[in-house]
Amino acid sequence: MDYLIGFILALEVGISANAAGFDKDRSFYATILVVIASYYLLFAAMAGSASAFALELIPFAGFSILAVLGARRWPALVALGLFLHGGFDVMHGHVITNPGVPAWWPGFCLAYDVTAGAYLLHLSQRRKKLAA
Fold it and tell me: How many domains does the chain have?
């Protein structure tokens, strides 16, 4: 169920953002990537784990850099960042012990990340065709 909800939510956010015109701003999906990456920091803070929080800062910084570079120079980096974050969700529990992460989160976030990344690539391709 966690995968299904992540998939549906990502589609709903993407379709709604497109219909409202929010995603015309290059920072829209970059901001989503930063927010997604920040949730592991939130979970560590909620659990009161300073060590997990410190470790979570490392991937957060990496995803934030991808988001900024993607928003400013190479939009494909944002989609790549979303796909990479999906991979990070799969391996997170093997790399960082964060007692605040809900059991359902990795599957939900993986589905959201991959769906949002694919939707962003789809939009990019569609916009290139319309511009040509």
Answer: 1
Neighbours of 7 (CB within 10 A): 17
Q: Note whether 10 and 116 are within 8 A (CB).
A: yes
For the chain, which ranges sit under pLDDT 50?
none
Which domain, by its residues, includes 11?
Answer: 2-125
Task: Give pTM, 2 decimals.
Answer: 0.92
CB-count burial class (<10 Å; 0-12, 13-18, 19+) for 116: buried
Is 131 a domain residue? no
Nearest to 32, CA basis, from 131, 125, 116:
116
Q: What is the pLDDT of residue 62?
A: 98
**Contact (Cβ atoms closer than 8 angstroms) between residue 88 and residue 46:** no
